[in-house]
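Retro notes
What went well: the complex prediction finally ran end to end.
Inputs used:
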Amino acid sequence: MKEPMYKSARDLPSAHLLGAGTAMCAGCGGLEVVREAYDVLGENTVFVNAAGCMTLMSVYPFTPFRGSWLYTAMASAPAGAQGVRDALDIRRAKGELEAGDDLEVVVLTGDGAGYGMGLSATSAAIDRGLDFLYLCYDNEGYGNTGQQTSPATPHGARTATDGALAGVAGEKKDLFGIWVANRPTYAATVVGSEPLDLARKVARAKSRSGPRLILALAPCPTGWGFEPSETVAIGHLAVRTGIWPLKEYVDGRVEHTRRPHPRLPVTDYLKTQARFAHLFEPEPNEQVLAEIQASVDAYWDAVE
Amino acid sequence: MYRIRFHGRGGQGMKTASRILGSAFFLSGFEVQDAPRYGAERRGAPIFAFVRAGRAAILERGNIDRPDLVVVADDTLVAIPGAGVLAGLHADSVLLLVTTVPADDWQQRLNTTGTVLTLPPPGGSERDPALLSALCAGAAARLTGAIEREALIRAVDEELALYPADTIAANRAGALAGFDALAVAAGRVGESGAVAADGYDAPDWIDLPADGVGLAAPTIHAGATSVEVRTGLWRTMRPVIDLEKCHRCTWVCGTFCPDGVIGVDAERYPVIDYDHCKGCMICLAQCPTHAIAAITERQGREADIAAEGEQA
């Protein structure tokens, strides 16, 4: 399948497929990603939604989608996607469904399900070579229930369950790396504040078949503690500080689609969010700040 | 027992207001419950928080249906049925509104003979939710007449202990401003007695026979039906585009808007769908030519009414 061309931001769609009126928070970074991706994926898309914030996307009788939406438990969205794909394939084989009416099956999941509970079902779906696209909006915590720690919560962040002074002791899990180790047909990281990069990657994913990952950082005003107007600015900072590398895995190689030069200090990003405020007030926690900077530096040293 | 209900929008601090008031009651020797209603709370959506305070153990649970005091932090909620601001007010209830409209006007608008009190928004602005919550808690404390200044200040300190000192100081000042502003009405809110189970009003619903699933919950075939939900009601601030400054780079604001409510008109200018815009202000923050400004919803509504008048 041929990729549509997105040469500049002017080529981005100006009319949007996703309906307004959803219950997502004002300034939701996850909604921004889903809206941008849906415009590229097109109407012939069926979403299989793991429980999470986006449970509220489609509340009967209201849906923002143009087609079907299937809701599953947190851990089983890839299994739901398998069932939908199989049903479509059977109808194709019987001649009941023209090629042009086939649907792209997209798992829509947050990081709680994507990095944690749903990992086993995801791994098995990749092993089976399931033809699906896995779109994870990563807001680095269980946002729908009040931002408890998830396996995607970064080191040092304060959450509803890690309220101690130093924040989360562990490190953010590398879901992109896990997918790459499973040798999918495509994997990429994106963020809604880089819509051109996102559109190109979603188009590339759509032009292939097999298991494909789009992993999106989703700045979360409610869970991270910032003004909703700052969602895009914080997305930009995540990229420019090197905290959120934009990259893709294609034909067996990982390529970075953006190499921030010069990289801004991580504090430029951390300072914008209340979840890291304890690292600065009442006095700077130099140790944790240095740990976060060192892990970002080590990542890019290995890349460059 | 005092039964007090707070109404505001997500982000205006009503949960905090109820906690401050609850703690102030507790420090004054009362048995206390304080809790927000759990639902899908988010920025701008109607929020409810409840405080019960009594001199004996409180056996009541759940939402407060017959409040002695209703505090409304955002007067735009009064007109929204889902916010249920006026629900269950009885003859002795007090309604306290944070508003710039005089109490007499509200009494006429709401067609009520009950007590309506008003407080101006802190600093004349709706943009400071922290002070709004403290103001409401302080005002409610004074209206009960059962809480002294010292208990109120200690409650602010305890509830905000994790915040920086200047935030606590600002909230103390906000709470005391509310407390002092209502000195004239100190003790106006009374306690109401316990309600026995058989004393509750029967629910005012109508029993209907159950329909088959096909009729009661028909399959929806249309796409994008979510547009029937008017999320524009969440907004407290409204983005307004100055077309003279606009360079028509609509791929910027139109792409970054999470809700996709910025369209493009025939002359390629951006158009905001105010029925659905939630007021996140990402467009304002990202507009390269600073062509987008924020006005309060009240200013916006007044401008709408003026524009309608000109057309008529």
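What we learned: Chain A has one domain: 15-303.
What to try next: split runs per interface for comparison.
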